[in-house]
Design goal:
With about 325 residues, this protein is of the alpha/beta class. It has helices at about 15-25, 30-35, 40-55, 70-90, 110-130, 195-200, 215-220, 235-245, 255-260, 290-305; strands at about 60-65, 65-70, 105-110, 135-140, 155, 165-175, 175-180, 200-205, 225-230, 250, 265-270, 275-285. This is LysR family transcriptional regulator.
């Protein structure tokens, strides 16, 4: 099949001739090349004729009872073998990535809560398995999925629904929210009741200034309301706010666990029936079968499975999970 070429350029030769040329140069005979490619000697003889016209050289000439390669054929042989090997490699399915040799930068967009709970374990895993990989964690902004087509390799967080048709996604883990407070606060010594929970000032995390959430809906069902003392831009900031006030900060349980390692914070269950949220991964379809990107997604899944926290929360009877968005 004659290959098309850009306007004004010399026409490309028929690339289907490449395997026959390689076989002829290696076998040094029409019969040997025909047997290798499972075609008849007459068909291979016709192909040799076409190759001679394309190359402008006889390639194989009589020598005694057989054929021998011309100088041009000898000169072409290593380049023909390399070209054929490159074409075969280009058309093969991607192989598993050699992690020890991988050199790649991944741009991951996520929130500070996920960075706090999964960032360090992920870096440890990368250092062990793929030391040439570099991670660039980007802060959440408008969370536009269109960014996955350009400068974001992976979104990690609570994903919008629906996603664009060219974005793939998978669940990473479920998470719930808890309340954190100063460990020496009087109200942190035991379980919270819904009334006590509503009476205390709250700190919530929002990047859009919203203060009403599913927590307010559940309180309203009980005839209660709450006072949002402050909103914080990040979960880490919310924990620091709670440390210096008499307020409850509502954060994911994995954030509470990490914060309580380094701050004198108590972790308390939210005494409301609230839905469990799902953290997911989202990526553009162009990266779906990329071996290195598949490894990164698998690495995050492994880290998330290992990092599932067991909070030391005081659990009141009847309390359940938490909200699918920052309460």
């Amino acid at each position: 099949m004659q290959q098309s070429s850009p306007p004004g350029a010399a026409p490309l030769p028929d690339m289907n001739l490449l395997p026959a040329l390689d076989a002829l140069l290696r076998a040094g005979s029409v019969a040997g090349a025909a047997d290798e490619l499972n075609v008849s000697p007459s068909a291979m003889s016709r192909t040799l004729g076409r190759l001679r016209r394309v190359v402008g050289d006889p390639l194989l000439v009589p020598s005694g009872r057989g054929l021998t390669l011309t100088p041009r054929a000898h000169e072409m042989q290593p380049r023909v073998q390399a070209a054929l090997a490159a074409a075969v490699a280009a058309l093969r399915p991607p192989r598993e990535v050699e992690l020890a040799l991988l050199r790649r930068e991944f741009r991951i967009r996520t929130n500070d809560g996920i960075a706090m709970s999964l960032g360090a374990p992920l870096l440890e895993l990368v250092a062990r398995e793929a030391p040439g990989v570099r991670l660039r964690l980007l802060p959440e902004g408008d969370e536009d999925p269109a960014d996955l087509r350009t400068h974001v390799d992976l979104d990690v967080g609570e994903l919008p629904d629906p996603l664009p048709h060219d974005v793939r996604n998978s669940a990473l883990r479920e998470h719930r929210y808890v309340a954190v407070a100063r460990a020496d606060a009087e109200f942190a010594r035991g379980p919270l009741t819904p009334h006590r929970f509503a009476e205390l000032p709250h700190i919530t995390v929002t990047r859009r200034g919203r203060t009403y959430s599913v927590v307010d809906e559940r309180l309203a069902e009980l005839g209660l309301s709450r006072d949002v003392l402050a909103t914080a831009p990040t979960y880490g900031a919310a924990c620091f706010f709670a440390l210096r006030t008499d307020a409850l900060a509502l954060v994911p349980s994995e954030v509470a666990t990490e914060a309580a390692r380094v701050m004198p914070l108590a972790i308390l269950e939210i005494p409301l029936e609230l839905p469990v949220a799902t953290t997911g991964l989202a990526w553009h379809v162009r990266l779906d079968t990329d071996p290195a990107h598949r490894w990164l997604r698998g690495a995050l899944a492994r880290v998330a499975a290992e990092a599932s926290p067991q909070t030391s929360a005081v659990t009141p009877s009847g309390a359940a999970g938490a909200a699918p968005a920052a309460p």
